[in-house]
Protein 1
Amino acid sequence: MKFSMKPVADYLSKALGQEVKMAKDVVGESAKSIAASLKDGEVELLENVRFHKEEKKNDPEFAKELASMAESYVNDAVCTAHRAHASPAGVADYLSPAVCGFLIQKEISVMGGAPLTRSVPLLQFSAAQRCRTRSVLSATCLIRSILW
């Protein structure tokens, strides 16, 4: 399958020094049975959600199915945190706690140092190539424009 998460599962298995159990689907029998059988410390990786039409539509039923396999939610994907899709947004409606991770906390703390006054109108040009850089620039400018 093109864009499969299998190479990520293989890499994580090596990095963690333990098997990462790879589901053959996202919300199907494979994903749910692996999730139900996980013991403390074990890791499951779902197949890529990006190709489910329900993902981009932030379908509540799809988000509920994703959430049904977890106890809590941590979003540390800076480049997708702004998306109103099922995996970065909808799932958080059905899990508690639903929190940001260390990378997002770092971005927030960096933006927290923004000056709170401005003397000229704000205009943003973003030529950053990396998604993370664009996200930080955009979020910083948005927060500054709201605060000013």
Protein 2
Amino acid sequence: MGHTAAKYSDKVIFTSDNPREEDPGQIISEMVMGVSEEHFKKILKITLREEAIAMAYQLAREGDIVLNAKDVYQKIKLGASAVQLYTALTFEGSKLIENIKRDLVKFLKQDNFENIEQAVRFELKD
């Protein structure tokens, strides 16, 4: 998986998502092991998921892929006011928008937000 991500990406950020009892550093090390030397310079290793998402948002440019509503919502809470979906639409089609809208409503309710504006930059507030 790490090899494929590095091969077809300009930049790859390895992080962990809910590692449970596993060591997040070990998870990342295992992902990196599959990356060939020629693609190793594309890799960033950031153990904390929130920091990894913030870095991805800083590096993101128009046309970068957003994979799911959880990623979109996390970016919004870290300060994104707009998210680029063009490439993801190519692969998933119009159902992607409906899925993201449905799941964003669910995430907003879970965090007791009445609207998306309340979530913007929420993770960066003291």
Protein 3
Amino acid sequence: MVIFIYFIFLLILEIKDEKNEKENISESEEKEINDKKNIEMNEKSEIKEDKKEIEFIPNIKDETINLIKEYNNLIEEVLKIKDTGNGFYNKKNYEEAEKYYRQGIEKIEKFSPINQTDEYNSELEDCKYKIKSYKKILYSNISLSMSKRENYKEANEINLYILNNIDPDDESTYLRLLKYTLSLGDFEQGKKIYEDIKNKFSDNEEKFERIQNNCQDLIKSLKEYDDQIQRNFYYKLLNYTLTGIGIFTGVCLITYFAKKYYKSKY
């Protein structure tokens, strides 16, 4: 009877596993599709091009005009470097792509303008914003390049740097952090990151819905992990129960035969 119950239990679990297996999305196919779009989508979400004409501001200081020129020259150089890196990325030469992305970051970090001004100017502020955005893009692209070589731990160090030092609210970086953590097999940490995402973005319904749509496969992986934990628990519970029943049955049989033996002897 106990063995029959055990086999019924195993049959139920096997049927559930088969159902989950049929529902699984092919990860390799999804990566094949996303591989060609990662860089482009990342950059489009980061930079908002200002299409408005620059307003003429009378009596603008020469220092401000020259400083804007310096920033625009920097932006042009960084864009060329980034685009070269993207070319190598699209050819799947991720190491070479990473070199160019780092070169772009170094160019930004070493930038020391000759001209200085305390004058507020909207075009100058726009230049500074673009430089900060391109710096985030370059770091994001480094993270993507590392992930393509399965260096998930190093890629997540880059993601944490972005969140801690450049943009603490960048949803794309949070998604990469979650994805690479699960790729490392650290599902407990993945659950914590997902909770952080929910706490951070749940107030913004539109943004949170977009994040959920973009990480459905990751959420599914977390659910499957929880299901596996639950199955393991029931397996252990069943084994302990069967072990307990076996021990109890053994003790009863030993007691029974011991009594029978002593009765027949004496």
Protein 4
Amino acid sequence: MTSSKFPSLKGDKIIGRDGAPIALRGVGVGGWLNMENFITGYPANEEAMREAVARAIGADKAEFMFEKFLEHFFDEEDAAYLASLGLNCVRIPVNYRHFEDDMAPFTLKEDAFRHLDRAIAACAKYGIYTIIDLHALPGFQNQHWHSDNPTHKALFWVHRHFQDRAVWLWERIAEHYKDEPFVAGYNPINEPADPSARATRTAVAPAPARGGPPTLRRRAERARGVDAPSGSPGRHGWTSDDETRGAWLASGCWAGRSASSRPLGQRPSMVAREAHGARSVVHARPGRASRGAL
């Protein structure tokens, strides 16, 4: 049995670092690095909540309060507890605002990874894989509050600037974690949606000659630095409707159209990594790509 630094796929099985097949069982740490009101109990999106608190108690105290919130929400004791339950995977939703500022696009914050690094290290200590989920994108990939959207318009799909920022951000994330064996996957766009159907037209239109929807394809190719494959998960031996085999291998990225006829927001969205030489795993969860357990 051959061991590997990174998890990989062999046929229809996910292979762990020890060379043995594994089943990823876990939960999502929601409400933390992307605050959601139904989890953390406030009547707004995260940006509006932060602004309201700053007005009420002052900017310095608000910054201190939210930093302590981030510091204590998830720590090593939580990772130990999850491991004690027999779980081996944690999905971590994150907000793009932790990495860059709207007034300084394409500039990585100095402390961008401090909390994410800490959580990934704590989980790794107890043998828990992590999946990084970009839950709120620049310009907002859906019209709802859980993408930290105060406008109810999914502007990500109609402004190239926002799309380029998302590509740039995934390049930074992929580079930062390229050598981290316990980062098992990436969820590049959580719950993409737009009631005007612009997002649907962008993402499910017939694939161009080289394969893949233009917006998602640009993100895939630039983040990985290689050509993304064309075709459906089924073409690669996977079905998006099989609960036990909801993953597929395609050189590290979903760039083709789904084998399923579900709307985009209900398609597999857990895309794992092959960035800058990292081994490739694609873990696509069947059903609605949403908050909560994997």
